[in-house]
Design brief:
By secondary structure, this protein is α/β, with parallel strands linked by helices. 43% of the residues lie in helices and 21% in strands. Bound molecules: S-adenosylmethionine.
C-alpha cells in the first residue's frame, strides 16, 4: 500500500513567505524581477534564496573569474557580480537579444556594468570563441538543459582546482527522476549520475522550492578537486 505523505506545500510556502518578510530586500533585485515580468520575459530566474547561496559561494571562494551560461534578465548575474571584488569579472552568455537588453539595463542599475561581460548568441558558439585571461573560479550553468554536459565539460576544463561548478534545475520539478521520464529527461538524469559518480564526495545538491512555479528542484554544486 502506498504511504500517505502530508502535503508539504503550505509549509514550504509559509517558510518562504517568512524569509521574504524578514530577510532584507535589495531594491535592485526586486526591480529586476518586476521589470522582467513587465517586459514579458519568462519569470524563470533563480529564487532570492538561491541568489543568497550564489553570493555566499562567490564570497567564500574569493572568486574573481566567473562564467555564467544563461543570463535571462541578469538576476543571478547581479547576485554574483556584487560579491566580486572591483577587479573581478563575470562572463555571461545569452542567446536571446531581448533578454540580453534587459540584463544590460539590470547591470547598469546594479552598478556592476564594469564587472560583467555579456556575449549574445548560442552559448556553445560563444564558448568556442571565448578567450579566457585566467582560469575560472566558478561556473554557473542555467540555460538549455540538453547542453548541460557540453557546458559542464567546458567548465571542467577551465575551472581551477578548488573552484566550483554550479548547475541549476537538475530535477526539472521531479520530471528527470519520474518513472515515466521521456528520453530528454532520462538524458538529464544520466548527466546527473555521471557527475555524481565522477565527483563523489565533491558533490553537493541543495534542494529548492520555487513557489511561483510550484517546483521542487535542486542546485548542483561540484568542487573541482
Ligand atoms: C533559466 S534562464 C536563466 C536564468 C538566470 N540564470 C537567472 O537565474 O536569473 C535560461 C536562459 O538561457 C537562455 N538560453 C537558452 N538556450 C541558450 C543557448 N543555447 N545559449 C545561450 N543562452 C541560452 C534563455 O534565453 C534564458 O534566458
Amino acid at each position: 500500500m502506498p504511504t500517505s505523505r502530508p502535503d508539504l506545500k503550505p509549509l514550504f510556502i509559509n517558510v518562504l513567505d517568512y524569509l521574504q518578510e524578514h530577510l532584507n530586500h535589495d531594491p535592485v533585485a526586486d526591480w529586476i524581477l518586476a521589470e522582467t515580468a513587465r517586459r514579458g520575459i519568462p519569470e524563470i530566474a533563480i529564487t532570492p534564496e538561491q541568489g543568497r547561496v550564489l553570493r555566499l559561494l562567490v564570497q567564500v571562494l574569493g572568486a574573481r573569474r566567473i562564467l555564467e551560461v544563461g543570463t535571462l534578465s541578469g538576476y543571478s548575474t547581479v547576485w554574483m557580480a556584487r560579491a566580486l571584488p572591483d577587479d573581478g569579472k563575470i562572463i555571461t552568455l545569452e542567446v536571446n537579444p531581448k533578454h540580453a537588453a534587459m540584463a544590460t539595463d539590470a547591470f547598469e542599475r546594479a552598478g556592476v556594468t564594469d564587472k560583467v561581460e555579456i556575449h549574445i548568441g548560442p552559448a556553445l558558439e560563444s564558448l568556442e570563441a571565448l578567450d579566457l585571461d585566467a582560469p575560472l573560479d566558478m561556473a554557473f550553468i542555467d540555460a538549455d538543459k540538453q547542453n548541460n554536459m557540453a557546458y559542464f565539460e567546458y567548465a571542467e576544463a577551465h575551472t581551477r582546482p578548488g573552484g566550483l561548478i554550479v548547475v541549476d534545475n537538475i530535477f526539472l520539478n521531479g520530471k528527470v527522476i519520474a518513472p515515466d521520464a521521456n528520453d530528454y529527461m532520462r538524458n538529464l538524469e544520466e548527466f546527473n549520475r555521471h557527475v555524481f559518480e565522477k565527483y563523489g564526495d565533491a558533490v553537493t545538491v541543495i534542494p529548492f522550492y520555487k513557489k511561483e512555479e510550484d517546483n521542487l528542484d535542486g542546485i548542483l554544486v561540484v568542487r573541482i578537486p
